[in-house]
């Protein structure tokens, strides 16, 4: 396996910010602390971000990093439908255990009001690339329906995941996101699965 490249400056700033947000909360984290934690400069920070608020939209980068890790550990022999369910469970577990509800809600709010970067809908993200790859392989292996396009399947998967996250935020985290995803995602997507006789 190829050695991973060290993170670029923007990536180091994002990683540092999210570590601090998790440890001490968004409101109690300052730009100065993010700069210090990332080992960068004030000029570098403001080259990439207009302020702390701009970092909220980078949560999708944190998710993509998780997907990269999962790609390396996922069992290639697992049924492709099960791989999709596995990705969802792992993402929801990470969110529930490592990211505050407030930050997830802020990310969704920022995506709704922004005119610029709408990272959740960026189809060049690792998230979408991985989903397309899994669906394509599932169709080739006869595990997922071939009469539905890859794009349609990926769109429905992402829509269902966002719906659960959004509802969890609206409900103030009063239920387990992981458990809700575990029961609802297979139900939402079962018609894409090819049933064996």
Short note summarizing the structure:
By secondary structure, this protein is mainly alpha-helical.
Topology:
Blueprint: H1 9-24, H2 31-38, H3 42-48, H4 59-73, H5 80-98, H6 101-113, H7 126-140, H8 150-170, H9 177-189
Helix pairs in contact: 1-2, 4-5, 5-7, 5-9, 6-8, 7-8, 8-9
Description:
The relative contact order is 0.11. With 197 residues, the protein is mostly helical. The chain is built from nine helices and no strands. It has two domains: 49 residues, Orthogonal Bundle (Arc Repressor Mutant, subunit A); 137 residues, Orthogonal Bundle (Tetracycline Repressor, domain 2). The N terminus is likely disordered. The N and C termini lie far apart (39 Å).
The CATH class of the largest domain is Mainly Alpha
Indicate the proportion of strand residues.
Answer: under 5%
Main sheet attributes: strand count, strand direction, barrel closure? none
What structural category do the secondary elements indicate?
Answer: mainly alpha
In DSSP terms (H or I, runs of 4 or more residues), the helix count works out at: 9
Per CATH, which architecture of the largest domain?
Orthogonal Bundle
Helix content: 55-70%
Gross morphology: elongated
Low-confidence stretches: 1-6
């Amino acid at each position: 396996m190829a050695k991973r490249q060290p993170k670029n400056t923007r990536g180091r700033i994002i990683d540092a910010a999210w570590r601090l947000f998790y440890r001490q909360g968004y409101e109690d984290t300052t730009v100065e602390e993010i700069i210090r934690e990332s080992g960068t400069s004030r000029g570098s920070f403001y080259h990439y971000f207009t302020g702390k608020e701009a970092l909220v939209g980078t949560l999708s980068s944190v998710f993509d990093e998780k997907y990269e890790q999962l790609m390396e550990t996922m069992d290639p022999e697992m049924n492709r439908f099960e791989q999709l369910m596995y990705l969802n469970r792992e993402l929801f577990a990470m969110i529930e255990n490592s990211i505050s509800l407030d930050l997830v809600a802020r990310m969704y709010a920022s995506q709704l009001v922004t005119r610029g970067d709408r990272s959740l809908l960026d189809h060049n993200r690792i998230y979408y690339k991985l989903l397309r790859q899994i669906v394509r392989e599932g169709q080739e292996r006869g595990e997922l329906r071939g009469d539905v396009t890859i794009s349609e399947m990926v769109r429905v998967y992402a829509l269902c995941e966002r719906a659960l996250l959004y509802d969890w935020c609206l409900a103030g985290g009063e239920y387990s996101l992981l458990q809700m995803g575990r029961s609802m995602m297979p139900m939402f997507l079962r018609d894409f699965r090819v049933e064996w006789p």
